[in-house]
What we know:
Number of strands: 16
Mean pLDDT: 86
Distance between the termini: 24 Å
Amino acid sequence: MLSHGPPETKQMKRRMANADTGNIFNELAGFFTSGLLPLSALAILLFICFVSGGPCDNIVTLSSSWPGGYTAALKVPIKTSTTSWKMDITFSSALTSLYVWDATSTMTSTVQYRLSSVSYNGVQNAGALLSSVGFNAYYVSTVNPAPTITTILFNGINVCSNVITTTSNPLTTTNSVTTTKPLTTTATPLTTTTAPLTTTTTRPTTTTSGSGLPTKYNYPDAITKSLLFYYAQRSGRLPIADNPIPYRSDSALNDRGQSGEDLSGGYYDAGDHLKLGFPLASTITIIAWSIIDYPLGYSSAGQLTKAQNMVKWATDYFIKAHVAANKLYGQVGDGTLDHNYWGRPEEMTMNRPAFFISASNPGSDLAGETAAALAATSIVFKSVDSTYSALCLTRAKQLYAFAKQYQGKYSQSIPQVADFYPSSGYGDELAWSASWLYRASNDVAYLNDAKVFYSQFGLSSNPWEFSWDSKEPGVQIMLARLTGETQYKTAVKAFCDSKVNQPKTPKGLLFVNKWGSLRHASNVAFICLQAADLNISPLTYRQFAQKQIHYALGDTGRSFVVGFGVNPPGKPHHSSSSCPNRPALCDWSAYSSTAPNPQILYGALVGGPDNNDFYVDDRENYVTNEVACDYNAGFQASLAALQSLAFQGLFN
């Protein structure tokens, strides 16, 4: 069925509905020659027509496609009430993998998968519509025809109703983009390939963002893979039913505070295995922000639940680390000991000390940013899990009070962190956390505090960046949104105008700093996408932001996102993904190897090129090839915003 795609004229719908399968090519060709349908849209519509054209059309809706894969949503009418369910899905030909959301998945064969309910969607009442489950199907891009769903058994009953007889040859898909074999999600342990990344030098194909406008790059796939990167960074005990990273398992289970507090969990900061609260809290605030403001960006990609779980993995850890009203752990691991080790986190044996801030050793920046992250997360979960939302908000209020009463820089109280993430000040975090608490609680006292801190710490100036250390542009955007006052909008406009007008690299990158050049450009992009939503130069700012994100996705002729697009990085500076499959030894020889990482660190945004667009894919170069939790934050948030805009037909 042609339910998606750019042309939505009544003429096209009527003619396509009346065309038999053998005439569909002729009908579409007629639209193309008459100018109703551009060539890129023609290719997409042909693909969607034949992949979705099958006996299960009443259940399956295709939202996007690319050579070697497509995204589909399932809408299953519930005939009989049940407390749990299983769906047995059969495809017409073999898949290489199936990535499922809102269900667990077990592969019965290469053409058959069993999807099972999870804790929150097992109960279904008769007459309801189960519509949250979907998947990305991956197959060899040269397969002709593309795999279609032939049967869906829901608790043993075939729910597919359409019967279509095809009299002409189905669509032949092209192989203009070569992709590596994606991860599979099964209930049994997964194996990975040690083959190098497959690359291609062809340009990316236009894809659909869903039911809206076509996009140059596959935003849903990029969002999905960015979330996989965060999966790869998780520390602690990993849930068996929700661990799509086959080379990762439980690690650092004995992380403890100085009084024996349980500090397991959270995320490893970068390619190493330190757990650093300040940049992680900034990451979570930004990702939660994007979920709040662009939920459609995630839901249309089938990743809303995954994104919610991603922030919760961190906030669960923050709640653990907040061991008393005025005591918060901000670092686990010794930087020197950690950086002397290259290997798997599961096999670490070094001492991992923990460091905290307190009333006598304050850190308003760390406490404030953690409060902001928890406040934002409380909004994310307000309609999902009200109990957890309330817990996050309570802890956010406590941490904000701690930050406000006992003021100081965390990197002075935790000197061990100064070599990695030293703070330049805490005034921005005080205003930032107060703004988020007002948005989460609607208590005007927090808004008044934010305004006071804004003036007290001179946050109206035009800052150089928006980052884990510098929240000024975020404060400006938040206050502009919350108050509508001109002074804050003026500050936002000054920031984004300066970045739009700043000279770019020869290939178009906004270059802010050599350390994580793509991270900085992505962060600015997200701020300016937010500004556009406030009707501040919307077209100019969206075009600018899109260009920065597209630079990372492949506009220079290569991708800077591991496992995505054309010629992606194969050697990120990341220890666990550089290790061979267990039980093989992993040590510094893996670091110095010239081969690509044996494990594909899907979705990781590498540091990026210099100010002349020069980049070498070199694991030993931690400036260009470092990866980190905060590197992906603004990038993923911008992807969600762009996907939301395209899906709604507002901008592409």
